[in-house]
Amino acid sequence: MAAATIKDVAREARVSVASVSRALNGGGGVTAATSARIHAAAERLQYIPHAAARMLITRRTHTVGALLPDLYGEFFSELIRGIDLAARARGLHLLVSSSHGGATEAAAAVRSMQGRVDGLLILSERVDTAFLRANLPKALPVVLLNSAVSGPAFHVINIDNHGGAVAMVRHLLQAGHRSVALIAGPPGNFDASERERGYREAMARYAPRAALTVVAGDFTEESGYRAGQQLLARTKRPAAVFAANDMMAVGCLAAFKDAGARVPEDIALAGFDDIPITRYVTPALTTVRVRIADFGRLALERLADVVEHPGQETPSADTLGFEIVVRDTCGGNKPEQNS
């Protein structure tokens, strides 16, 4: 049986082809009763609009893009899940790309999406104002995630990296740990730099006489494991360790276990993000909770609003709140939240 055409729907609903096109593509000039009749006819005939023709009429692809620095790991899995769920709720498709090769690769990924997406979500430390102006058409709606870019030209949604780090370090100190070391994230990464800034500010404010200890990491479990080994090898070990993300905290925890160091009795540990695995490791990890899937959902909804109301959405910078989730690795039981 041949697939139904737009002419079949028009005949079934007793209207013109133009009326069917306007009704099914959300245009005006069709009464509510006529629109309902057209949609009912399309459903009976199981009519599927031709995507290319629909694009020509609406000038929309009904697809949004997401450019991320990586697709590996629980953080990005949760972020994509939140974006995808929100996209599907809006009837949108999702096109995902990564840019871990540098600015050149990020530019190539952005250019490859032009003409294929109605809007773009970008989370990449490679992206600054100059990059955006050089590689994006002015008319393409964009929402930036966890970005240092500021100003009236772009929509930005950030995690409260600085505030979360301050709160966690304060919590560790108030739990009785006199010294706190940081496993830092990769150089040049906005999240990492904000979390390190929060660590340094909290130590200066709440433990001004304590020495600062910062060990390099790159947000991977392997770098957390190496950092844990380095911290245990120090003549004077810190009382607590704050890893700038949970993946490094999990690696650090493994290093402590392999060395026979008890957590939290010998050394306390905390992370940042609250990825799903943190509640299942032993002991369960204390962390700064960011509702990652909600972060993706909010970003997609903001982008969809910009796409659907071009020129009406004033660019804004929003910050997603956090919560201190106290589990078993820090030896404290006083939660704190900010939202």
TrEMBL record:
A Pfam family it matches: Peripla_BP_3
Domain HTH lacI-type: 4-58
Keyword Cell membrane: no
Keywords attached to this entry: DNA-binding, Repressor, Transcription, Transcription regulation
Gene Ontology MF annotations: DNA-binding transcription factor activity; transcription cis-regulatory region binding
SUPFAM superfamilies registered for this protein in UniProt: lambda repressor-like DNA-binding domains (SSF47413), Periplasmic binding protein-like I (SSF53822)
PROSITE patterns attached to this UniProt entry: HTH_LACI_1, HTH_LACI_2
Protein name: LacI family transcriptional regulator
Organism: Rhodanobacter lindaniclasticus
